[in-house]
Write a sequence for this structure.
DNA sequence: ATCTTTCCCACCTAGGTGTGAACC
DNA sequence: ATGGTTCACACCTAGGTGGGAAAG
């Protein structure tokens, strides 16, 4: 079990008490369309959201027990990558990584009923390349390959978080390479086409206004 | 102690263990300028924020104990009011009120250290006149007079909330009359002058653009 | 040179304001 | 008629996008 690296098998066998627990990734088609090309996620100093957003629907929890949901993002290998001739190639050894930060879902702790009644979304999670980040964002190295993981922990509050009874889920289609600027223009176009916040960059059938010239 | 009405004295004597607990209302000058005229707060079906925002700085908590902070808003008397000849006058008996809802500060529960390190703001609290509200907003009756109260409860989580050890604080300058439309135009003007979201209604020294005519 | 990162920007989404007419 | 409520709206704040130039 590599220190902070992705363990195999990806999904831990859940404790017997939770054997019916099931997690389904939402918007799988969208994730797949990115994954087929090679997903890239922008990381910035201030922190950047992931797109697509990680959303999951959960079943099989004890309705009355309390759970904390968290995400972490672990390196998939020991390589550093570069984008060369329209493909990702290994370019060296991975940078050393600080112990991975955890993003605790802000609704935590909540009962099984509350987690199951609607899908759980992690849209507020942010990625940063700033190793000194003070805002609790997840710190990653650019040009490295990562795998997000969802953890479900039965615990009464975030302070008594113990790692003695939890289930971990990793969906391969959510893996990505962290970048500070998009490398593959097909990824850029998929983001523009699907992220509502990037609508300004869509080609509206020739009706798009030209960008204004800034006079300084 | 009137059922759901404002008890006297307004501030409960705190438990001895919390005798050093202190709560200071922020932006007291702003609250005072409203209070001097007669504060009105809009209530709507969808829920409306309060302005000024209720903010408090807190000291004297046990740094390591965990606390939940809540607000409720209680009737100040049994009257219904109306605004007549530029003043508020009693116009009848109060409407019956559902048991008051509590607004639990979203950072709850947190340690004394966390509550004390910066001021606590309740800007997300919303008021509604919709008795069937499903979104957890505080339900009030229009044309009735109210007093917001802050409660500090030592408790480990929101589910085990017990009313056996808490402190209540009520600042008279935060009392208000709930309305569906402003009655006193001095209140309207104070809101426009101070609420950033109402900047569009400020008179910019004659530079304000005329409102566009809507063609339908 | 080449590759990667940073910064400011126009352009969006999301949602908090009082208005004034319509509604009851 | 009168008094109170609702609704669509223009106009804001707040903050999430990738672009492109500049910087490293």
């Amino acid at each position: 079990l590599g220190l902070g690296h992705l363990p195999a098998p990806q999904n831990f066998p859940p404790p017997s008490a939770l054997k019916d627990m099931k997690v389904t990734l939402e918007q799988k088609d969208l994730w797949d369309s990115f994954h087929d090309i090679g997903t890239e996620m922008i990381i910035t100093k201030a922190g950047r959201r992931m797109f697509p957003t990680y959303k999951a629907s959960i079943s099989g929890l004890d309705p009355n027990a309390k759970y904390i949901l968290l995400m972490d993002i672990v390196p998939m290998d020991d390589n550093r990558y570069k984008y060369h001739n329209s493909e990702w190639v290994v370019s060296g050894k991975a940078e050393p990584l600080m112990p991975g930060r955890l993003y605790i879902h802000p609704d935590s702790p909540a009962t099984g009923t509350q987690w199951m009644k609607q899908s759980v979304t992690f849209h507020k999670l942010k990625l940063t390349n700033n190793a000194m980040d003070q805002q609790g964002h997840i710190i990653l190295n650019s040009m490295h390959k990562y795998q997000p993981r969802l953890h479900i922990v039965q615990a009464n509050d975030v302070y008594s978080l113990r790692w003695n009874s939890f289930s971990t889920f990793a969906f391969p289609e959510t893996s990505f390479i962290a970048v500070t600027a998009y490398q593959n223009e097909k990824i850029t176009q998929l983001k523009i086409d699907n992220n509502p916040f990037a609508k300004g960059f869509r080609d509206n059938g020739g009706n798009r206004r030209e960008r204004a010239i800034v006079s300084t």
